[in-house]
From TrEMBL:
Keyword Nucleotide-binding: yes
Record key words, sorted: ATP-binding, Kinase, Nucleotide-binding, Serine/threonine-protein kinase, Transferase
GO molecular function, one term: protein serine/threonine kinase activity
Gene3D superfamilies: Phosphorylase Kinase, domain 1 (3.30.200.20), Transferase(Phosphotransferase) domain 1 (1.10.510.10)
Organism: Aphanomyces astaci
Name of this protein: non-specific serine/threonine protein kinase
Region ranges (Disordered): 314-334
Catalytic reactions of this protein: L-seryl-[protein] + ATP = O-phospho-L-seryl-[protein] + ADP + H(+); L-threonyl-[protein] + ATP = O-phospho-L-threonyl-[protein] + ADP + H(+)
Highest taxon above the source species: Eukaryota
PANTHER family cross-referenced by the UniProt entry: CAMK FAMILY PROTEIN KINASE, SERINE_THREONINE-PROTEIN KINASE NEK1
Length: 417
């Protein structure tokens, strides 16, 4: 897979957009992953020997190109020590329909690899290590949830480890941007073992579905088994939607950690804690001090500033800003200058009819799929009801036959001299 990129790309940066000619910028070393959406390659940047990156080549529909680039731009703007950083992203030549995303490379593997190593050696993760992994993943999820983004695919394969013992959340391939914090999505994505009950029911969901998935990961870190399992995907979804997980496997950990897992795996989304709620529990809050200073904890958990950016502090009280209380005049307010984008006016497009958009088609397909699931569920319930009625009828007939046989025996013995 060793090759050099020599195409004309359109570079999209969170602030500046420009069209540049990239000649031999990245060298692909090997393919490290392949999925239904595309491939991932380990690469080096020319002029930076030894520094490795990951290039994801994602096949996208031309109709979804603008939305994909818009979402990639937003994900590139995420800047947090516990999130895999997106260095840049660009579209290949127009005819190739490929979106390339360049991210940092996690040199310590992922959580799945760590769990496999412990399982093969017959060891368990210590509770301190479990809490360290949980806290850093929660900080990453808090960062994206505060920006109205869902991850929708939290699993051990997407929790990466660095040699510096830093945990980073990555693979936002199915991330969803919400219009507000209470908005709900209605598409089915994610990995079956970590799918939430509301998705199994075909219902709309919000950030609490990430909490469920993280709860499944936490259960797996403690027990080295899945919280829910099944012989096939249908049975797995039924167990997730209606079944219960084995809480006795959590008996070896502390009661506070066990209660946290049970709360995160509540069937009803409103009964689950939010990521902010998890970070404020005494168990997790005490552990955060290992990673954050007192000021950083105030920034993250107090909501007085937005993740360390000291531009949005709460205004001081009137007493603090009075002339007597102030030894020096306050500094001028920080002016946030935003670039003014002038767009060329386009002539109106006249059509004889309004063609359905991709979003409308996607929503229609989702509604049709939901209807089919509901119909299948109703049919299954009817089938179970019929089976139950037949079993009850057979039981009644058996009882009657037993009573008849008993009476025959009584008459038989009464006639014996």
């Amino acid at each position: 897979y060793s090759s050099y990129a020599s195409e004309v790309f359109t570079i999209t940066h969170p602030i500046v957009e420009a069209t540049l000619v990239i000649m031999d910028k990245y060298k692909k070393l090997e393919r490290i992953g392949k999925g239904s959406f595309g491939s991932a390659y380990l690469a080096e940047k020319r002029g930076e020997p030894g520094k490795q990156y990951v290039i994801k080549e994602i096949q996208i529909d031309p109709r979804d190109q603008k939305a994909a680039v818009r979402e990639a731009r937003l994900l590139a703007a995420l800047d947090h020590p516990n999130i895999i950083s997106c260095k840049e992203h660009f579209m290949l030549a127009p005819g190739q329909k490929v979106l390339c995303i360049v991210t940092e490379y996690a040199d310590g593997g992922d959580l799945r690899k760590l769990l496999k190593t412990y399982h093969e050696t017959g060891r368990r993760l210590s509770e301190d290590l479990v809490l360290d992994l949980l806290v850093q993943t929660c900080l990453a999820l808090k960062h994206i949830h505060d920006r109205k983004i869902l991850h929708r695919d939290v699993k051990p394969e997407n929790i990466f480890l660095m040699q510096s013992n830093v945990v980073k959340l990555g693979d936002f391939g199915v991330a969803k941007v919400l219009s507000n914090t209470l908005a709900c999505a209605d598409t089915q994505t994610g990995t079956p073992y970590y799918t939430s009950p509301e998705i199994c029911h075909g219902l709309r969901y919000n950030h609490k579905t990430d909490v469920w998935s993280l709860g499944c990961v936490l259960y797996e870190m403690i027990t080295q088994t899945h919280a829910f399992d099944g012989r096939n995907q249908k049975q797995l979804f039924q167990n997730i939607a209606y079944g219960a997980f084995d809480t006795t496997r959590l008996d070896h950990c502390t009661m506070r950690l066990k209660q946290l897992v049970i709360a995160m795996l509540a069937k009803t989304p409103r009964d689950r804690p939010s990521i902010n709620g998890i970070l404020k529990t005494p168990l997790v809050r005490d552990r955060i001090q290992t990673f954050l200073s007192a000021q950083e904890m105030q920034d993250e958990l107090g909501h007085t500033v937005l993740h360390g950016q000291h531009l949005f502090r709460k205004p001081p009280s009137k007493a603090a800003t009075s002339p007597r209380a102030m030894k020096h005049p306050p500094p001028p307010p920080i002016a946030i200058v935003r670039p003014i984008v002038v767009r060329e006016r386009q002539p109106p497009v006249v059509r004889g009819y309004a063609a359905p958009t991709a979003a409308m088609k996607q929503r229609g397909d989702a509604m049709a799929a939901k209807k089919e699931r509901v119909q299948a569920l109703v049919a299954k319930q009817r089938e179970l009801a019929v089976i139950r009625l037949v079993q009850e009828k057979k039981a009644r007939l058996a009882r009657k036959q037993a009573e008849v046989d008993r009476r025959k025996e009584v008459r038989l013995f009464s006639n014996v001299p």
